[in-house]
Design goal:
single chain; about 625 residues; alpha+beta; Lipoxygenase-1; Rossmann fold; five-stranded parallel sheet; elongated
Length: about 625
């Protein structure tokens, strides 16, 4: 599986023979620098460029081009080389662009010798830079890894090389695609003239004396498929679908609701929300990677200080440790400043997007619910709750799932990492789980046209009567909640028969020829206190509904504590795995598919003491009566 990297993220390399492919769209120079364990480039003989296109283990093209293929054999580089930095530079003295902000975002992919793509990285956020370090291959503890860099230099290749400690780097020039050392440029091993670059330097490392701050140019973690919005403060929410007013000269464009691809406003908002989710995931990954680097560098510097016998005797050791910690804190602060800037952009976008969301995507406290009317068309997705990361508070991203539901839902009524302990009120937790289930069921009823969605409830012991009151009181259930073992068996038999008949009708091409007693509406089955009231036959039928039901419009919403079903052993493991687990209280457990963050989930609940749920269900009940 190809790893899609974000700025600052590292990735292990399973192979040492690589082909790095670069695509920019305009002619650029591609090259590489070789650095020692401190990242220092010891002379022009450590720079691979069109004028010297090959060094042991690295070969680049002899001229500028819009696409490049660099070959790297890490097993062949000299033993003293611990880093290989792949750079790009724009030619000077030509009519082409002079800054990377005016060209398409450079795309890099790393391939194995058999052509298998191992990783990819798109360099976004470039502006005035004329040279950029795209990727860094580095050796650590005997193994090679790669890091997505994206470190740009407005003063071009000379500044890039000087930042890596190359003496006389200002004599390098990029002319019509050729990098050449200027007259009098000679190799030197004078370490006093080199800039000190500690091991593990990444795009946030600006500690070299005299180095230009890396954070001086805009940093943008936006996915290449999303527009860049960098407004520092949120504007007034525009009318749904309205175009943004043109920004004043020099000012960033304000965020706009629905500024994403899609055939309808609903689809554009859906894509925009998930774009915001991915942007936050990428920005946080870069921040965490930068902090990890700062911590790793601190640890190494402290180890070096302790290993130096001169530092151990006297006060030099204390001063070295304090200096190392100070450098670590500055790097972490710089990384946090970048993250805060991106959070401000996303918060501004969120405050514009939230008021424009349709009913299916909106929080229960959104004013859109006050003018609610039963829709004529079903939505494309549903809001299950909110997601956030510890670094991103108070920003919350809606958790949207596509409709019809592909998998059942499970609201965990058991103790979680947040709620477990000797003083947990298990009765209150089960009540909260059922209230979360009712809120989801009410939302599903509200966003579907009248008669197209029905809700049934299995409550064997009647323990959910209080939480179910909004549904039972409004009269929107397809039938009263079934209780006892007999009620459980009857409802499960009815829904199992529906699944069997619809499957046969669809396979036979006669979907419209169902018996009159088979409901055409989609069905949601809420099961409370599972497995109470279930015998082996009922459990088998429930597993069947969980597996086969979603494809023919029968969906499961299970409210259960998995510990209650421990007596079934591994028999129910496939059931739990087939369901999407949710919690009635904020809990950190949702993992994203990009970088694996543990997102905290919060359920979508109506405001306490409000009447919005009652009003919405009243409209649903009235429309249901007219439909009949």
């Amino acid at each position: 599986m190809t790893a899609e990297l974000v700025r600052g993220q590292n990735h292990p390399l399973s192979q040492v023979r690589l082909e790095i492919r670069i695509s920019v769209g305009v002619p650029v120079l591609a090259g590489a620098t070789l650095g020692d364990e401190n990242g220092t480039v010891h002379g022009p003989q450590w720079v691979v460029h069109p004028g010297a296109p090959a060094l042991p283990g690295v070969e680049v093209a002899r001229q500028a081009a819009a696409g490049h293929r660099l070959t790297v054999d890490l097993s062949a580089v000299p033993e003293a080389v611990h880093r290989v930095d792949v750079f790009l530079a724009l030619p000077t003295g030509s009519t082409g662009p002079s800054r990377f902000g005016a060209v398409p975002a450079p795309r890099t992919t790393v391939h194995g010798p058999d052509g298998t793509e191992l990783a990819r990285y798109t360099i976004t956020g470039l502006d005035t830079e004329a040279a950029v370090i795209a990727l860094e291959l580095y050796r650590r503890q005997g193994a090679w890894k790669m890091r997505a860099m994206g470190q740009g230099y407005a003063d071009g290749l000379p500044a890039l090389l000087a930042d890596q400690g190359l003496r006389g780097a200002d004599a390098f020039a990029v002319v019509q695609g050729a990098a050449i050392p200027g007259p009098g440029h000679t190799a030197s091993n004078d370490h006093d003239a080199h800039r000190a670059h500690e091991a593990g330097r990444n795009s946030y490392d600006t500690e070299a004396p005299g180095a230009a701050p890396a954070l001086g140019s805009p940093v943008d973690y936006t996915h290449p498929g999303r527009p860049r919005h960098t407004a520092p403060s949120p504007p007034a929410p525009p009318a749904t679908g309205a175009a943004a007013a043109p920004p004043a000269d020099g000012q960033p464009a304000p965020p706009v609701a629905g500024d994403a691809v899609g055939w309808s406003m609903e689809e554009r908002l859906y894509n925009q929300v998930w774009g915001m989710f991915e942007d936050l995931a990428r920005a946080t990954a870069a921040y965490r990677s930068a902090v990890d680097f700062a911590d790793a560098r601190l640890e190494k510097e402290l180890d070096q200080a302790l290993a130096d016998p001169r530092a151990r005797l006297g006060g030099g050791n204390t001063a070295a440790r304090e200096a190392a910690r100070s450098r670590r804190d500055r790097l972490a602060d710089q990384a946090r400043a970048v993250l805060d800037r991106d959070l401000a952009r996303l918060i501004a976008e969120s405050e514009v997007v939230e008021p424009a969301l349709p009913h299916a995507y909106a929080r229960w406290d959104n004013p859109v619910w006050h003018g609610y009317r039963v829709p004529a068309e079903p939505p494309t997705a549903l809001r299950l709750g909110d997601l956030h990361l510890p670094e991103s508070l108070p920003l919350r991203i809606p958790l949207l799932v596509g409709l019809p539901l592909e998998h059942g839902l499970w609201i965990d009524s058991g103790a979680t990492a947040v709620t477990q302990g000797p003083f947990v009120d298990t009765v209150a937790l089960r009540q909260s789980a059922m209230e979360a289930a009712v809120a989801l069921a009410a939302r599903l009823l509200a966003v579907h046209p009248a008669g197209e969605f029905a809700v049934r409830v299995l409550d064997p012991a009647g323990a959910g009567a209080r939480a179910l009151w909004p549904l039972t009181g409004a009269g929107v259930l397809a039938a009263p909640p079934a209780t006892g073992a007999a009620g459980v068996a009857q409802v499960l038999e009815r829904l199992t028969r529906r699944v069997d008949l619809v499957q046969m009708a669809v396979r036979g091409g006669a979907a419209g020829a169902l018996p009159d007693d088979v409901e055409a509406a989609q069905q949601l089955l809420i099961v409370n206190d599972f497995p109470h009231g279930f015998d082996d036959r009922a459990v088998t039928r429930l597993r069947y509904l969980a597996d086969e039901g979603p494809a023919v419009g029968v969906h499961l919403l299970l409210v259960a504590d998995r510990a209650d079903a421990v007596g079934y052993g591994p028999l129910l493991d496939p059931l739990w795995r087939s369901l999407m687990r949710l919690t009635p209280v904020p809990d950190e457990y949702v993992a994203d598919p990009w970088v694996g963050h543990a997102w905290t989930y919060e359920p979508a609940l109506p405001p306490t003491g409000g009447r919005i749920l009652e009003q919405v269900l009243g409209e649903v009940a009235a429309a249901r009566t007219k439909y009949k």
